[in-house]
Amino acid sequence: MHLTNYAINKHSKDFIQNDMTGSKRRFVSVNASLKEAGYDVDQLWIDTEDVIIKTLISIHPILKHNYRSCFAHHTVTSACFEILGFDILIDRKLRPLLLEVNHSPSFHTDAPMDKDIKEGLLYETLNLIDLGSCDKRKCQEEERKRVLERLFTKRAPKDRKEEEIAMANYMEHLIIHEKKYMKGFKLIYPNENEEKYSKFFEQSASLFGETTASRARQEAAKNQRVELEAKQKQYDEFKHAPAKKPPSGPKALKPESPGHEKSETKTAKPIFTLYDKYKKTLVPPPPSQPPSLPEGERNSSRPMSIADDG
Fold first, then answer.
1. What residues contact residue 61 under an 8 Å CB cut-off, 6+ apart?
2. Which value, in Å, is the radius of gyration of the alpha carbons in the chain?
3. What CA–CA distance (Å, rounded) separates 198 from 189?
4. pLDDT digits (tens, 9 = 90+) for 107-141
5. How far is the C-alpha of 65 from the C-alpha of 63, rounded, in Å?
6. What does pTM read for this prediction?
7. Are 1 and 85 in contact (CB under 8 A)?
């Protein structure tokens, strides 16, 4: 535990190198000092764990997205792990305040206490993550399964059930293994407080998802879903609607080919009938004997009637 950056503070002339009473101490020494001062150390650690859990929940959507982007085919076992360093400041009322989170904490061992704590941390971490449960062969097997799933879009229910069984078996094995190799670690989540923090997962997801672009995508997806549901409803109604009987009698038309019925409600009249009507209406029948004009009254500039010999 340190108040300022250890890499800078250790060069000060006032820096005291002592594990129990110096400028950089173990948690055992800090807890003992606070208890002597009359503070509730147990409540301090409960509040500190609360800060750590809520911090991890707030970044969970980003971590989840990055993990699935990098390790899309690891569905049963874990593909990676990370050690985080939390810098916590305690005020005079013993309230923990988060200063920063180091995703790459320093593992330099320039002091005996650093060597003891950091080497023990790394050793117990490697035992805790159970490297034997996720070997190269299992990863390659998962990769082959995913390739087959991409080739065959529809997965068989048997494969899904096998994957669920494999996930349940892995989680059961993981819980037993972590309890065995917990050593200096403490499980702070999930435990009996799981119900308390479940609501924060929903809020953290909405916090990172509520943007202008995301709302537009959600609205477009909603409209598309409504449109697809309406089309599906129309299709179902058409599919289950009773079939109409074909017309019978002299007006019914025979199908062009076997098994194919052609619905016609009105028969078109022949073109020559329309032409006859048009001819009889516009062209009156010519007289049997056209009137003859005297020889002197004939004028070639005036129109004359032409008799139809037929």
1. 204, 205, 207, 208, 209
2. 45
3. 11
4. 888 888 889 999 999 999 999 988 777 666 766 77
5. 5
6. 0.59
7. no
